[in-house]
Structures are given as C-alpha cells and as structure tokens.
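Ligand: magnesium ion. Inputs:
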Amino acid sequence: MSEDRAPIFAADAGSISAAAEILSNGGLVAFPTETVYGLGGDATNKAAIDNIYKAKGRPRTNPLIVHVKDTQAARSIVGFNETAEKLADAFWPGALTMVLERLDGKLCADVSAGLSTAAVRVPNHPVALALLEKADLPIAAPSANRAGRISPTAAGHVVFSLPGPDDTGLQMVLDGGPCQIGLESTVIDLTGATPALLRPGGLAVEDIEAVIGPLLMPSSNGPDNEAKKSPGMMDRHYAPELPLRLNAEHAGPGEVLLGFGVQAPAETMNLSPTGDLEEAAANLFAMIRSLDGPPFSAIAVMTIPETGLGRAINDRLRRATVSAGK
Ligand code: TXA
Ligand code: MG
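Predicted complex:
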C-alpha cells in the first residue's frame, strides 16, 4: 500500500460543501455517522462504487449500505411495505438498516452485489445529514475500514487503515468527533414473510420488537449458515491484530484485561465502570484499538451481558475471535 493518505477536515459548512462536490463528481469521502464512520460514494455511479470495494479490499459479493436523507428518499429507491413504514417512523433517522427490494434503475447494480434487494438507512448525525442534503444523492457507505478489520469510530481511525486519493479516490475525511453509538447499525431483512435480524447493532433488538413483534433470529448453526443469508456476515470480522479471549476474569500471562462493570480491577481499562451497555458500545472499538499491540500479546475481555446493546457487542467480540485463515 502506498503512503498516501486522505486529508482530515473539521466538518464545517465549507468542508461539507466541498465533500458534497467530490461525491457529485464520483469521488469518495469518509464521513461521521452516529454509528461508525462511513466510506461514501455516489450510489448511482459505478466508478465510485468500484472504488469503494477497492479501497476496502471488500469482496464484490458483499453488498453496501445506501444512506439517504429521509424516508421519502428511501421510498424512491426501494419498495416500502407497511413494516418498513412503521420502522422508519419509529427509528429514522437512526441506527437501523432495512433490506428491501430495489426499484429498477435507481441504484448502480454493484451496490447490491447482484442481489435484487438493497440495504438503506437514514443516519442520525448532523454532518451526515447535511452532506446527504447538499449532495442530494443516495450515498453508498460501508464502514470506512479495510474489510474484516475494526470499524472506525473517529476520523483518525479512517486514515490509519485506508489508502488515500492516489489509489482509491478517497479525497477527504470529514471529522465530526467520536461516534456517539460506536457500533454499526442493526440490519434487518424485510423481504420475507417475517422480518429477520441479519446483524445485531446499535439499535437494540428489544426496541425493534416492541414496534413490530418478534424478529426471526440468525440461526444458532453459527456464522457459516448466517453467511449464506447475509453475504457480509463472514466468519472473521472486526479483527484486531492481537487474539481476543472472552469471558475472562483476570489477565493471564502477556494479556491485558479489558474490563466491564464494577467487578473489574480499578487499574484496568474499563468499557463501562458502571456496567452501562451504551457506554460500553461507544468505547468498544476505540479501546480495543488502543490495546492492540505490544507490550501485550492478547486482550482478555470480561463478560458482557447478552441484552440490549450487549447482543451486538458480544457478536463483534465473537467474530473477532474466529481464527484467521478459516
Ligand atoms: O452503521 C452502519 O451500518 C455503517 C455506517 C457507515 O452507516 N455502515 C456499515 O456498512 O456498517 P457495512 O457495509 O460495513 O455493513 C453493511 C452490512 C453488511 O453486513 C452487508 O452484508 C449487509 O449490511 N447488507 C448490505 N446490503 C445487503 C442486502 N441487500 N442484503 C443483505 N445484507 C446486506
Ligand atoms: Mg463493515
């Protein structure tokens, strides 16, 4: 990989306008959302979409999320049904991505990796919304990291892993500070008879079920089976450099402990000293990054409860422990 890196700009009105211009011309811009930073490109422009896959090193079989400025814009690219209307009403703008049938001719086909469906969401972040408004385009934006690695929750994380303009047309990173939620959106498939969870994320499953009733859950057969339903849910994902050990009580030799709750030793880095799952989600990726290397040889993570955002936190931690090469 070359040494060139995209410049980071504070997200003010001037840099947001410049970013919208870059997008309209088929270039790429990384921008903050409330979940994680996205690597954005015009979802109707094949050259831009090709560059997103290339910049991430993402398999062309793994479709991208499309971001739109409001529900009306979503209705103009995918077929809405009653459940989608209810969910958009309840949770957009927000950390919910809905998979629906694509309408003909509205998006570059490569956005969906050959599927008849597209994943859409309205992000809840002032910079993302201003950019979508200004560019007035559907913006494809996967998380702004190399495929299989940890998602960025700050602007500096983006340039740490992605090559810049020479290689990929990524021309600027808009800096909107740390992401408030810190986990990727919850993805649900609304194309079947019953809505199905494809990826737990920054909106708790319990909150969705309170509006539309029970979701079909990913099969307990594990990631291999899920991968067939949601092309992006590949085995190894969210991987740090160091091995992770889950449900740890203490650090073993060479390990550093990542704590959770009041039981953690006082000197330990703690996802949330009070045991708050939203705080833990917001800290998860940045804390793992900060511990991910010498002098440590592994990261031992304490137990996180499997409720609310804990479900998404545990999903990311489990995927990060799948050994490379599988
Ligand atoms: O919070 C987020 O969702 C962030 C921010 C930037 O919005 N984006 C994000 O994108 O996490 P990405 O591309 O890293 O994850 C998108 C997920 C993948 O698991 C992908 O396979 C799935 O959504 N997906 C996209 N289109 C799909 C489709 N048509 N059918 C099923 N799954 C789809
Ligand atoms: Mg991703």
